[in-house]
Design brief:
Catalyzes the Claisen rearrangement of chorismate to prephenate and the decarboxylation/dehydration of prephenate to phenylpyruvate. The protein is an alpha/beta fold. It contains 13 helices and 15 strands. Helices cover about 45% and strands about 25% of the residues.
Length: about 400
């Protein structure tokens, strides 16, 4: 094949890519019209039976065009997830008109390039209004920015699949009156970042946030005799490397974040667990109203009376109301040695009858009890198609 023929093929591919984008935009506009109908008629956002039927039809159509069933399934999982999240955002905006701001002031840990920064970008990409980023140096500073009306929202990492819960954030949630209004899960892809081209064997000093070091402990053990210096954020670690301009120092963070500081990656996938994700809370002064058509979670915090089986009795209330608990976390109560505060995530909307029954019962039986927030579920589980491989045969 000559270079001229190759260029002609590439031109045609570029044309097709443009057409695909136009069609995806048109599809998104149509799904927004569907959302309008769901709002008017109180229809749930997701219809997984219809999603399964759609995927089966598309897999069969794809087979006629020699397209692999897994390829078609993965492609439309992404498209359907985007559709669901856009519809949820539309319904949430309609239910909470006071939250539609021309500018969303968002506080997060560190400066541009941190994982919290990337999570904020991702979450607010589906919300109306410009994004004004407010970098902070500590979780307490982030909380105070919102409490003092210097920010509208805060984005806080709450747990990681590798290093577990971020206890400092849970402790901050004990002390604030802010409400959890959203959540998101963001993939964490740790990369070794340098300013000058170098070999890993030459690196003598490594900067990162302590949570990052915990998530990459196996890689650190392989490095051997390297000085590990904790920083208050991933961006602070990147700035250290960019300022020193040495081939013996490196930072660990996201490659896209490092690019903002002129750094580039020399080794990726450093986390102990290759499927490494962090969950973030979005908090604000005012709670939000989650439409019943939207799948919701509720985060509770409570302390129980000091007697045997008190926590079990509380959890039985959830079971008796057919409420699924997705997380249970305990933290010491500040100023009360040996007493614990329990954070509980459940699937359910505070407007639902079963949830209201459970909340009323728990309020009466717990020593202290508070709803930290009810918010839309942002993690969309893909609809599974039975026997995808059989359909492709």
């Amino acid at each position: 094949m000559s270079s001229t023929e190759l260029e002609q093929i590439r031109v045609r591919i570029t044309e097709l890519d443009s057409q695909l984008l136009e069609l995806l935009a048109e599809r998104q506009q149509l799904t927004n019209q569907v959302a309008e109908t769901k709002i008017k008629n109180s229809i749930p956002v997701r219809d997984q039976k219809r999603e399964e039927q759609l995927l089966i039809r598309l897999i069969k159509q794809g087979k006629k065009h020699n397209l692999d069933a897994q390829y078609v399934t993965q492609l439309f999982h992404v498209i359907l997830e985007d559709s669901v999240l856009n519809q949820q955002a539309m319904l949430a905006a309609r239910a909470n008109p006071e939250t539609s701001l021309s500018v969303n002031r968002v506080a997060f840990l560190g400066n541009k390039g941190t994982y919290s920064y990337l999570a904020a970008q991702k979450y607010f990409s589906r919300r109306a209004g410009e994004l004004l980023e407010i970098g902070c140096q500590s979780f307490s500073e982030i909380i105070k920015k919102v409490e003092n009306d210097e920010a509208d929202y805060a984005v806080l990492p709450i747990e990681n699949t590798s290093s577990g819960s971020i206890n400092e954030v849970y402790d901050q949630l004990q002390l604030t009156h802010l409400s959890v209004v959203g959540e998101l899960t963001h993939p964490i892809q740790h990369t070794l970042l340098v300013h000058k081209n170098t070999d890993i064997s030459k690196i003598k000093t490594l900067y990162a946030h302590p949570q990052v070091f915990a998530q990459c402990s196996h890689f650190l053990a392989e490095l051997g005799n390297v000085e590990v210096i904790p920083c208050e954020s991933s961006s602070a670690a990147m700035i250290k490397v960019a300022e020193q301009d040495s081939d013996t120092i490196a930072a660990i963070g996201s490659e896209s974040g490092g690019n903002l500081y002129g750094l580039h990656g020399i080794k990726s996938n450093l986390a102990n667990q290759k499927e490494n994700h962090s969950r973030f809370f979005v908090v604000a002064k005012q709670a939000v109203n989650v439409p019943l058509q939207v799948p919701a979670k509720t985060t509770l915090v409570m302390s129980t009376v000091q007697k045997a089986g008190a926590l079990v009795d509380a959890l039985m209330v959830l079971r008796d109301n057919n409420i699924n608990m997705t997380k249970l976390e305990s933290r010491p109560i500040t100023g009360n040695p040996w007493e614990e505060m329990f954070y509980i995530d459940v699937e359910g909307n505070v407007q639902d009858g079963p949830m209201q029954n459970a909340l009323e019962t728990l309020t009466a039986m717990a020593r202290t009890f508070k709803v930290l927030g009810c918010y839309p579920i942002e993690e969309i589980n893909p609809t599974k198609v039975a026997a995808v491989s059989a359909l492709a045969d």
